[in-house]
Amino acid sequence: MLFACWLPAAFLRRHLSGQNPDLPDGAAGMQRMLDRDVLAAASLRQIRIDAIAVLALYGGSMVLYGAHWPWIVAVLGARALIASQLDHAPHHGTPLERRDYALNMHAPNWLRLYLLNFTLHRVHHAYPHLPWTALPKVYNAASGMDIRFATAVLRQWRGPIALDEARKIELGDAPAG
């Protein structure tokens, strides 16, 4: 979105709406979320401000690194890969129309703490106002964990999951991993 954000909102809406159709059951697809969170004037303005800040920060960093600028590119690339894998893992295979839905992932206590209880992602979605330290206190052990953390991260490499399969995951008809 860093460069696409400079295109006119009408152009973006026209081209993104075809990629975010309504769902076969008549439920709204991602278009409503795009209109509200990305293409609204205030949202697009904030995205553009953020894009300028990102370009200034990365550009300035590369200038300061001088001849060693490839190191910052490599570190930023590695960080981007790790962040995208972790950010998407609790949402991969979940219903698109359920923006609030996410998976809780089982991980060893040391990793859970290292990741600031990120593995309790559905709990976070249910209580977004709580700090990470409070998430285990509101976690209902009876609801269990949906998937192992490593499985959640690695299964993304299998590719997209059909919407019908994602609905089965939510309803408990199919295994999440």
Question: Which features does this protein show?
Answer:
single chain, 177 residues, mainly alpha, two-stranded parallel ribbon, 53% helix, globular, disordered C terminus
Global shape: globular
Characterize the largest beta sheet: strand count, sense, and whether it forms a barrel.
2 strands, parallel
Termini separation = 30 Å
Query: Structural class of the secondary structure composition?
Result: mainly alpha
Q: How would you write the strand order of the largest sheet?
A: 1-2
User: Which stretches are low in confidence, meaning pLDDT under 50 for 5 or more residues running?
Assistant: 171-177
Any idea what the radius of gyration is? Answer: 19 Å
Number of helices: 9
Q: Share of helix among residues?
A: 40-55%
Instruction: Assess the beta-strand content as a share of residues.
Output: under 5%
Give the overall average pLDDT: 83
DSSP strand tally: 2
User: What is the H/E string?
Assistant: HHHHEHHHEHH
Describe the protein:
By secondary structure, the protein is mainly alpha-helical. It is built from nine helices and two strands; from the N terminus they run ααααβαααβαα. Strands 1-2 form a two-stranded parallel ribbon. The radius of gyration is 19 Å and the shape is globular. Residues 171-177 have low confidence and may be disordered.
